[in-house]
């Protein structure tokens, strides 16, 4: 696996049960996943020679993030390395412009969009929409970085994104009632499974809370969301997990926001809440093993991200939250605490949604130092 | 953790979520747990200098097995190393003679027993019992090794155990209806949790199948079994998991067979079948964190061990079992396949015991190469 973040850490955790020999290319000797795997390789994933040496002898190569240059991945594939998802698919997770073109070609509902590089193009598109605009860099943004929400697309407002000098994508600012996520896994021979559609709540552009399944979601929309994800997995020939972030609009439509071709924050609930976690199914998919059941194990599962607070030592918060709720599931990523940094997540499950929500929210807030009690 | 078998492997897997930095002393560079942890240390756990170097800087030291000499552990404790469970407790898992003396002193029901070294003593105890006899080495036996079942304690029959030249323990051969196991975890400040009493089926002296909870167990006996385990954990001052293997007799009694002070084969079901697994609770106990709920997540959970068959490559068996049952949970230990060797386990759960049993038994038999279909 290329990339040593928490996704690789939790993928390795799942791979232990499958008997997988996990080789990691990490950004540094002590990043999240490097702490818990045997013999992590430290190197630069943008360097082709590093990638060549690292992938030599791997049965399959997969990713913790979508930032490996696809040109390098094509070279590896031509040299006989098995890359899953392959660069022909991964490019649609890397480049939002290509993604919008392809999805629109497939008839998948998206917000109205326009590629742009100049201030004139952005201002013109803003006028055309007659409402607020979202501007993104076509490549490289994530967790709220490389994204600008403009109330009004004036020349002054578009200055900052245009100043990046990189290709941009402008999109209508959808007036949505909530965000949903559709998570599927697909194997090389085309078997696919779909997890239930979940509701995700973002805070400052970062996934904050996920409720599985999405409360009060119309069955028609749940089916449509799963079909969109399964269609995309097939049409883009994705192997592994695909997460499709969606907007549910006030007029009862769903629109695709973003794609990720790897285990995703909106699927962390599945470790404790589903028969087979997204991490295990990602491995089973890329290893061409039969996929595991995505069935939920409780009526409701809630995941809340734990962000770093100002206190560097979480030991007492850990004691408090575990003692308060013996059924709480805590997942820490081994990261140094920095304010606002994703350092873990908590999961709760049960049959009473209010209770499940309260427990997860309290624990995450307490671990983040937001509660004094 | 000292010892690099599958118990350490699964303990590390649980520790990843807790953010634990796991240091391993392994018997070899590629044993089960050494494959999946960062920087395993290879060394001899019977060598005091090795233990000294390995434990330097550890917050707490715990075990994958009970074979570390307690004399060494006392030296480490005197040097300020935190050892959990401590040697004063561990000795009762190492020495069956001391264990029987202590349990009898505490009024815990045991089979009738006698320490012995000579043929004369064994033959005399056999006559006194007037029935079959079980002879064990007081130290060092496990998984059926170091145990002799003698139908009749003749001088000829006792020859083999006496020839070992080590101290022996003779016990009445209990006519039991089944074997049970009581699993508890206890932390340094005395908090304890008890898992439900399970039924375990042995085959050739090795744990073969575990049903959680034990079907049709009288509530009176379930409570008594949990109380025995909780009493022992407290009275022997055990920190971590304690497994008490029990006989249920035909006249409605339970008797203690063996003790283990570590995660135990009869608790593997808890990974998929309980809110908190035995591995996580062992870590939470030895790290003095509040313990997690031992509540079951399904009416029935069944675990069956996978033993090595004659085919060295399990890949196709793996494909078959995963495709046949998408809810099957497979846990492999990364061990080379050798006939009769524990190489993994499978777990199933659900509300219909017959169905759950059939699925787990089929998968384990298929993975062991016992089924041609």
UniProtKB/TrEMBL annotation, chains A, B:
Query: Can you tell me which family this protein belongs to?
Result: Belongs to the PurK/PurT family.
* Involved pathway(s): Purine metabolism; IMP biosynthesis via de novo pathway; 5-amino-1-(5-phospho-D-ribosyl)imidazole-4-carboxylate from 5-amino-1-(5-phospho-D-ribosyl)imidazole (N5-CAIR route): step 1/2
- EC number(s) recorded for this UniProt protein: 6.3.4.18
Q: Which UniProt keywords apply?
A: ATP-binding, Ligase, Nucleotide-binding, Purine biosynthesis
Q: What is this protein called?
A: N5-carboxyaminoimidazole ribonucleotide synthase
**Known role:** Catalyzes the ATP-dependent conversion of 5-aminoimidazole ribonucleotide (AIR) and HCO(3)- to N5-carboxyaminoimidazole ribonucleotide (N5-CAIR).
Quaternary structure annotation from Swiss-Prot or TrEMBL: Homodimer.
**This protein's encoding gene:** purK
Superkingdom as given in the UniProt entry: Bacteria
Q: Which PANTHER family match?
A: PHOSPHORIBOSYLAMINOIMIDAZOLE CARBOXYLASE, PURINE BIOSYNTHESIS PROTEIN 6/7, PUR6/7
């Amino acid at each position: 696996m290329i990339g040593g973040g928490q996704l690789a850490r939790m993928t390795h955790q799942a791979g232990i049960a499958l008997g997988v020999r996990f080789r990691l290319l990490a950004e540094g000797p002590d990043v999240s996943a490097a702490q818990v795997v045997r013999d992590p390789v430290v190197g630069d994933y943008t360097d082709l020679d590093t990638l060549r040496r690292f992938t030599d002898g791997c049965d399959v190569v997969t990713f913790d993030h979508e930032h490996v240059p696809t040109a390098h991945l094509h070279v590896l594939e031509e040299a006989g390395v098995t890359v899953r998802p392959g660069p022909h698919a991964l490019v649609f997770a890397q480049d939002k412009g290509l993604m919008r073109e392809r999805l629109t070609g497939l008839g998948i509902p998206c917000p109205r969009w326009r590629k742009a590089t100049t201030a004139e193009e952005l201002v013109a598109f803003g006028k055309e929409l007659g409402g607020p605009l979202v501007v993104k860099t076509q490549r490289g943004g994530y967790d709220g970085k490389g994204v600008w929400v403009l109330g009004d697309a004036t020349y002054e407002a578009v200055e900052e994104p245009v100043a990046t000098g990189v290709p941009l994508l402008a999109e209508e600012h959808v007036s949505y009632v909530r965000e949903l996520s559709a998570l599927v896994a697909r194997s090389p021979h085309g078997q696919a499974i779909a997890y239930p559609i979940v509701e995700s709540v973002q805070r400052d552009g970062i996934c904050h809370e996920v409720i599985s399944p999405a409360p009060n979601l119309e069955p028609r929309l749940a089916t449509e969301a799963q079909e969109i994800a399964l269609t995309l997995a097939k049409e883009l020939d994705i192997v592994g997990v695909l997460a499709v972030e969606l907007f549910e609009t006030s007029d009862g439509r769903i629109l695709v926001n973003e794609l990720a071709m790897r285990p995703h924050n909106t699927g962390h609930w599945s470790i404790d809440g589903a028969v087979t976690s997204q991490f295990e199914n990602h491995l089973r998919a890329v290893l061409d093993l039969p996929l595991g059941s995505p069935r939920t194990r409780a009526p409701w599962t809630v995941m809340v991200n734990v962000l770093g607070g100002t206190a560097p030592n979480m030991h007492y918060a850990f004691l408090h939250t575990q003692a308060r709720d013996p059924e709480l599931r805590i997942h820490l990523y081994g990261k140094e605490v920095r304010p606002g940094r994703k350092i873990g997540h908590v999961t709760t499950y049960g049959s009473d949604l209010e209770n499940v929500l309260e427990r997860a929210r309290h624990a995450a807030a307490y671990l983040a130092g937001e509660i004094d009690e």
